[in-house]
Fold:
Amino acid sequence: MNFVRFVKRLFFTFITLLRIGSYRELPNVFGFTRLNKNTHLGNNVNFNGFRVYGSGEIKIGNNFHSGSGCFVISQVHNYKGQKLPYDESYTTKKITIEDNVWFGMNVSILANCIVGEGAIVQAGSVIVGDIPRLAIVGGNPARVFKYRDSLHYEKLKNAKSFH
Structure:
C-alpha cells in the first residue's frame, strides 16, 4: 500500500511541476493539483488537491497544507469592458497565502486577497477578502469566528515545529 501511495505522489508531483512558476523545494502533492506559471511556492507546501484557474499571480508561503477540492480563481471576465455582460478581456487577481496556513476541504478563493500568516480556513469556506493573521475562519463568505493562541503559535514557530 505504501508503494502505491508513493507512486501516486510521484505522478501528482510530476504533473504539478509541469505548470508551476517557481518553488523553493519540491511540494508534497497527494492529489490532483493544477497550478499556473504565475504560482510561486515556499518550502514544505502540501497539496491534497488544489487548483488554480486563470493566469493571476499566486504566492503560497512556507508550511501550507490544503485539503482536497480547494481552488483559486485568479482571473475573471471584464464586466467593465465594451460589451454586456462582459467582453473578451480578463482581469487578473493577485492572491497571497502567507506562511503556516491550513485550508480544510473545498476551500474557494474568489478575490484579490491576502490570507494572513497562521490562518486556518474551515472546510467549505469561500474567501472573498483578506483574512487576518492567526484567524480561524469559516462560512460563505468566510468570517473570523476565533483566533489562534498567539503565544502557543509563536512558541511552535520559534521551535521550528512544522508538520
